[in-house]
Amino acid sequence: MFRFSIIALGCKANQYDAQSLAQALADAGGSQVSDEGQTADRRADLVVVATCCITTMAMRKSRLEIRKAVRKSPNCAVLIAGCYCDYDAGKIHAMLDSLNVSPNRRIVAGHHDNLKQAVQQAVALVGEELSIVNCQLPIEQQKQQQTAATRGQDVRETRGRDARDTNNNTNNNTSIKSLRLAAIKRNSPGTEFLPPILHFPGRQRAFVKIQDGCDAFCSYCVVPYTRSRLWWRSIDDVDHQCRLLVATGHQEIVL
What we know:
Number of strands: 9
CATH class of the largest domain: Alpha Beta
Radius of gyration: 19 Å
Number of helices: 8
Strand order of the largest sheet: 2-1-3-4-5
Shape: globular
Number of domains: 2
CATH architecture of the largest domain: 3-Layer(aba) Sandwich
Strand content: 5-15%
Order of helices and strands: EHEEHEHEHHHEEHEHE
């Protein structure tokens, strides 16, 4: 048994994703604790922050919440998820370095990563003796973290290239969009592999995500660069999720 805390920022989709992460951790034997429920002898063994980067204010708040969570549980393992991880994973890694969170007790996983695998690796960090400082990640995971940090820089650089390409090729929008999709949307949506939610604690109205992602690439919006390609859940999948939530007491559902 291990304890974890989870902080979710941003839109309803991110709130749902965060609860899916919490459900996956609970299924793995974790017990969720709130910030108020943490005491000196009851700290979270794993801190999860589902970040947002839709505005500079959202990014600033995400960094603030990461700092607060790590300082409250200084020896914890850390799992950072959400849009900020796809936008600028390098900055998140640099901040975790400044907070003395060593690479062998942190995982940074965005929407283009396998979040189910990220949860399994996070559980492994706290699984043996809850001795986080001495845990060693597999070599493959260290490579993935390095790739994620590089990808975060690439997303920002790609946006700059896209703007230049648009100015130079105003009549070639199809090729520009193809370039963007090839550069950004390589993998399946990571949240697709997370388990259905059994309960949405603290909310009378439960959220159910029926689709995610965006392929529009509007010039003013960062979302297509951070979330996956457009995808949607089957009617049967949505129906099953809604029935699970109703069975645990929710009387209202927001799609």
